[in-house]
What does this fold into?
Amino acid sequence: MSELNQEQIAERLQHLTELSVALNGIKDVNQLLERILTTAKTITNADGGTLYRVSSDKQSLEFDMAINDTLNLHFGGSHEKSSKMASIPLIDQAGHQNLSAVVAYAANLKQSVRIASVYDADLFNFSEMRRFDELNNYHCQSLLTVPMLNHESELIGVLQLINAINPVTKEICSFTETDQGFIEALASQAAIALSNQELIFQLEDLFESLVNLINIGIDEKSPNTGRHCQHVPELTMMLAEATHRHNEGSLKDFKMTDRDRRELWMAGLLHDCGKITTPVHVIEKSTKLETIFDRIHLIDARFEILRRDVEIEHLKKMQTSSAHPEQAQIAEQALKAELAQLDQERAFLRHANIGGERMSDDDQQRVLQIAQRRWIDSHGIQQHLLNAEETENLTIKGGTLTADERKIINNHIAVTIRMLEALPWPKHLKNVPEYAGGHHERMDGKGYPRGLHGSQMSVQARMMAIADIFEALSAKDRPYKTGKSLTESLDILGKFSLNGHIDPELFHVFVKEKVYLEYAKKFMDESQIDDVDESKIPGYQVSSTAV
It folds into this structure.
């Protein structure tokens, strides 16, 4: 091909400029590589081109893409890759640099190779190229192979062009020195863009790994909470995708880009990161008296002491008394009655300690009465059977947490917000603190920590609130409860949609799009997945007519 005139040079510079602009906007690597290869072909008027990328272990060049106009071939990029295109080793079996294959030569020596007539060149092994020609009735003649080097001269890949075509005669001609200069400039530009993009991916992966590191820390503190940290983002994304598909009501305009998805996923992973500061004995409190250990065993010991004291006192009286046999029998019956009473009270406290059901006022009063019993400790000091703190715990109305412990648990969300707002979030992740920090807010403004109303919350935060509740209801691994069935979980969630707790329209999507079933099949135990009668779910019909 003859050297270029000014108009042709200007045209090529225009292609390079357009590619430079495009490289900054294309985020998909396959699209990026395809644009690089097609631009290289256009600039040199090449009939075909192939692109190789360096393997992760730096030991070979992996085939990535091939385009040939004459053969109407397109592998890789926007098309499927070919399994017939083998990788090319950079090191031979003797452990030396592979210099027999032209692309490996260019990669190892970081030099461009330009050949006018492939079959006349004896420096390289073109057996594979000859085999390709025979199979496809093609003739590879001219060749230009250029290594792709980034700003640190690190090899990213190799760009190879086949058969320059003379635009006038349409005959195959040689690649020129000018062609080589343009393609070297393009390859360098492309390599830098790929390196920058790879660096961005690595930084994003590193950040997500650090997030998972936090969740691992929470998981080690509390295996139950750790699974919660993994399941909530999964369920949130399921609901988000269902809403994205939904085309009814006020949510019909809700759409997500890939960046939106990544932002929401990151928020889901971090939604409970503040729990890393929550004491283990509060997170894992499975009974009312549990702290580092379950103190019901201390109370058991006190009852044993009371029993022995009663028996000892009885024996002493029997030894010093010359009571009539009938009186002795009465005393024995009284002893048995008192011991039975102690056993009943101990059994009652053990049951009250479980905290699985709401405690009645009568039961709370009975705890207070039992607490007044007296026992003598190892120092000979008479004490109440239950101290004030134990009494407070055993009279908890519902669950296992005292009011102070609930404040400690609830504080995790305030800590989460403080932790997340302290980070310098990039623009595409700037909403993570709001999404993650709003999952305990309520539509009616009675949530925490900020008491936001539904109108003050993003759709994503409201989604996460539903995901957080449903996961907690259905979770089978909590120390303080058993996992509820699908029907039971949806019944409770439906009532929450009616009483101002969660967004009723999002709940409608949750049911209509069967998000609950998608989640159940992936994460719930089969025994929990029952047949749901959607017509009986509270709030579902109401919300569907409202939509």
Summary: Residues 177-221 form the longest helix (45 residues).
